[in-house]
């Protein structure tokens, strides 16, 4: 991310909510759609939020394969991985649901966890496999959707789902699956965001308050904290929620 973009985000954060929302409304109405078309080109579906409910699994996979062909999306940094590993505690088996190009899965394996990475995109999984092999790590990679994971109940000690839950088609099904395959803990990292029709991502679920995340999982034992990722150098800059649920 450029220094200019970071400075712009700091400027927006300093504004009162009404002014920030007003600027966003003007941008959404007049500029956002055309700006995205110019920025990304034909491969990026600027109308994703209008149509995602009606897409088949095959269409969904093709869309994300196109994303990974054209864009290297890496939202996690060293500080994020360290927080997640600390939240998990002692090493064990872990599923990284929505592993993308394998950044967190690799960090978990390096920390001594026995890792399985799941993603909907074959392109992402291929990139993850290559990165893990280059690091000399043994990680199991699986293709599949968060809403219907190809694992038995309580397969993993832990499940992590970082910068992924905001991408799922059916939030309730995805959450139920995360809870189904985990034995001890679930760790989730999602951006703190309001809904915007046009944006430079394929987000479909929006968490404006941490209570939305807490209620979605419904676990009696949990911690949910807000973290500031504005100084990230990678894909994601902004505020986020880190949720740790104990089963």
Key phrases:
single chain, 42% helix, 10 helices, Rossmann fold, alpha/beta, 7 strands, 247 residues, 7-stranded mixed beta sheet, 19% strand
Give a concise summary.
Helices cover 42% and strands 19% of the residues.
How does this structure look, described?
By secondary structure, the protein is an alpha/beta fold. It has a domain at 78-246: Vaccinia Virus protein VP39 (Rossmann fold, 3-Layer(aba) Sandwich), CATH 3.40.50.150. It has a seven-stranded mixed sheet with strand order 3-2-1-4-5-7-6, sandwiched between helices. The chain contains ten helices and seven strands. Strand 2 (114-119), helix 8 (122-134) and strand 3 (140-143) form a beta-alpha-beta unit. The protein starts with a helix and ends with a strand. The mean pLDDT is 94.
Architecture blueprint of SSEs:
Elements lengths: L2 H12 L2 H14 L1 H9 L7 H4 L5 H14 L7 H11 L4 E5 L5 H8 L3 E6 L2 H13 L5 E4 L12 E7 L8 H11 E10 L18 H8 L3 E8 L10 E8 L1
Parallel strand pairs: 1-2, 1-4, 2-3, 4-5
Antiparallel strand pairs: 5-7, 6-7
CATH superfamily descriptor of one domain = Vaccinia Virus protein VP39
* Span between termini: 37 Å
Fold-level CATH name of one domain: Rossmann fold
**Which class best fits the helix and strand makeup?**
alpha/beta
């Amino acid at each position: 991310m450029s220094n200019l973009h970071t400075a712009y985000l700091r400027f927006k954060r300093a504004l009162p909510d009404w002014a920030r929302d007003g600027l966003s409304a003007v941008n959404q109405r007049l500029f956002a759609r055309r700006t995205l078309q110019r920025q990304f080109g034909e491969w990026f579906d600027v109308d994703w939020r209008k149509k995602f409910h009606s897409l088949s699994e095959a269409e969904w996979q093709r869309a994300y394969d196109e994303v990974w062909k054209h864009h290297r999306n890496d939202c996690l940094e060293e500080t994020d991985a360290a927080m997640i590993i600390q939240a998990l505690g002692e090493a064990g088996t872990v599923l990284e649901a929505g592993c993308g190009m394998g950044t967190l899965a690799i960090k978990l394996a390096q920390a001594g966890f026995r890792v399985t990475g799941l993603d909907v995109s074959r392109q992402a999984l291929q990139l993850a496999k290559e990165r893990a092999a280059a690091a000399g790590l043994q990680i199991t990679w699986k293709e599949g959707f968060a809403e219907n994971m190809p694992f038995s109940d309580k397969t993993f000690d832990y499940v992590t789902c970082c910068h992924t839950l905001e991408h799922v088609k059916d939030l309730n099904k995805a959450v139920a699956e995360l809870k189904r395959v985990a034995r001890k803990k679930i760790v989730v990292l999602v951006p703190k965001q309001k809904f915007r029709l046009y944006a430079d991502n394929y987000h479909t679920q929006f968490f404006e308050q941490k209570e939305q995340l807490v209620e979605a999982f419904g676990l009696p034992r949990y911690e949910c904290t807000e973290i500031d990722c504005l100084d990230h150098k990678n894909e994601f800059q902004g505020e986020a929620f880190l949720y740790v649920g104990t089963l």
